[in-house]
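User: tokens in, sequence out, please.
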């Protein structure tokens, strides 16, 4: 492979969206994007959709929208175009067919007529003999008579690539020198019997034709690299023009197993619905296997672009930590301007039927946001925090209702009502002073026992924005009405 500095950097993110994009997908996309931006290169977004039963138009569109929401823009690909399109593999089938036929004509590939049952029987035999299971070269040197017989039987061949003797050696930008002995890389299928290409053919052909210089992808694809390099060779590409490979470390769950649906991985759509900010997701995923140095954890997208290098990617697995993601998300929420906070909060409040989006409602939300900005870790918590402002009567959950009905709580609420009924200046400072005077100084209660029942009576929950500011926002009439309802 040639010098990294001699070519304009062209990275690619090439998912096969059979569902919503997940943590692993987006971490790869983020690193590809950051490296392209850091080097002043290009990011190609390519959809690997040759499996049209599982990769649907809906999933493709959702993948596009997810990247756009995260701010991971691309230079070539769907909705952008480019000189090396089309960028959906389903629209490039003729290209793959051309190269497969070329490989056969040049003797690099051959038709294989072995049935699935025959292959499995031979693999079983290999296992019995403690041999590594793999294709045994049965069809490498078929005679004309063999081919005629198979054709007469109606067999449809797959196309296999010949792996020569020897080994494939390359330098991974993260793992250093990697060697694969070809005795463990048997001849592999390029095209199925129905003429559809397999991943190894399509991805290698596309990376060359789209002039990709750097392939940053998951460690699980490391073993496919010698097959892709074999395709490059068969295409006549000089080694110095091969892409560089950088295989990213696995992301592990809390159980130290590779992150999956079983141990906690969910789609990025779920994080969006739960109120994680796109900049928080990108910030956290950037730290999974890469470090900006000096234990820095809170970085902006601009800082990521400035600092990102492949050399700083760690080869060791990274562990996904939801609490750390929530902490970063909380930091990002606290850094928002009120206008930005409002624009991001409104969709949650409208979706949860807290408000309809009218101007008067939005004005109340704007007034309330400063008192909850320090108290939430997810945007979805805005609904829970502010619902009490937009209901005529509070609805207690079972636990809160039980607490309010207890005799000590009833007495506290009645005393609070008495202290507040004649209060003229309905500001949070005055509300706090009045309640402290009677509940803490006169009755001698600790703050939790003094204000807890009042909080539940006013908001319907023991989890709410600061009590005195909440009562100021709610207004005197509505606050007193709720206290009266609680003691009745």
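Assistant: Sequence out:
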């Amino acid at each position: 492979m040639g010098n990294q500095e001699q070519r304009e950097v062209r990275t690619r993110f090439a998912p096969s969206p059979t569902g919503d994009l997940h943590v692993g997908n987006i971490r790869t996309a983020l690193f590809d994007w950051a490296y392209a931006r850091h080097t002043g290169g290009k990011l190609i977004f390519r959809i690997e959709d040759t499996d049209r039963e599982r990769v649907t138009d809906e999933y493709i569109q959702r993948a596009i929208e997810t990247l756009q929401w995260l701010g991971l823009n691309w230079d070539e690909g769907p909705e952008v175009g480019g000189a090396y399109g089309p960028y959906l593999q389903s629209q490039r089938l003729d290209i793959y067919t051309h190269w497969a036929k070329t490989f056969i004509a040049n003797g690099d590939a051959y038709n294989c007529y072995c049935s699935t049952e025959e292959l499995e029987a031979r693999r079983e035999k290999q296992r019995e003999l403690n041999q590594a299971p793999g294709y045994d070269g049965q069809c490498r040197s078929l005679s004309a008579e063999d081919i005629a017989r198979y054709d007469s039987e109606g067999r449809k061949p797959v196309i296999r690539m010949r792996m020569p003797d020897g080994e494939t050696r390359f330098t991974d930008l993260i793992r250093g020198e990697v060697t694969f002995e070809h005795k463990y890389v048997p001849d592999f299928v390029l095209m199925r019997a129905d003429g559809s290409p397999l991943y190894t053919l399509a991805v290698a052909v596309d990376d060359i034709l789209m002039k990709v210089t750097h392939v940053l992808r998951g460690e699980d694809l490391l073993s496919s690299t010698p097959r892709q390099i074999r395709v490059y060779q068969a295409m006549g590409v000089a080694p110095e023009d091969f892409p560089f490979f950088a295989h990213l470390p696995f992301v592990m769950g809390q159980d130290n197993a590779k992150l999956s649906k079983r141990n906690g991985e969910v789609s990025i759509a779920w994080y969006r619905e739960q109120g994680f900010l796109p900049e928080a997701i990108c910030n956290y995923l950037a730290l999974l296997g890469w470090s900006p140095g000096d234990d820095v954890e809170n970085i902006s997208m601009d800082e990521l672009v400035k600092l990102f290098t492949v050399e700083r990617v760690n080869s060791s697995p990274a562990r996904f930590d939801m609490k750390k993601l929530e902490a970063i998300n909380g930091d990002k929420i606290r850094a928002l301007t009120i206008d930005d906070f409002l624009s991001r909060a409104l969709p949650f409040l409208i979706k949860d039927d807290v408000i309809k989006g009218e101007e008067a409602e939005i004005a109340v939300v704007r007034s309330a946001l400063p008192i909850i900005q320090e108290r939430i870790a997810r945007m979805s918590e805005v609904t829970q925090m502010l619902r009490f402002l937009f209901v005529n009567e509070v609805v207690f959950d079972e636990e809160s209702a039980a607490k309010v009905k207890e005799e000590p709580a009833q007495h506290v609420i009645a005393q609070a009502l008495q202290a507040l009924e004649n209060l003229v200046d309905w500001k949070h400072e005055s509300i706090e002073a009045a309640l402290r005077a009677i509940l803490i100084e006169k009755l001698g209660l600790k703050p939790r026992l003094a204000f807890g029942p009042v909080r539940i009576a006013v908001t319907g929950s023991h989890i709410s924005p600061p009590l005195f500011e909440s009562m100021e926002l709610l207004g005197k009439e509505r606050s007193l009405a709720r206290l009266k309802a609680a003691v009745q």
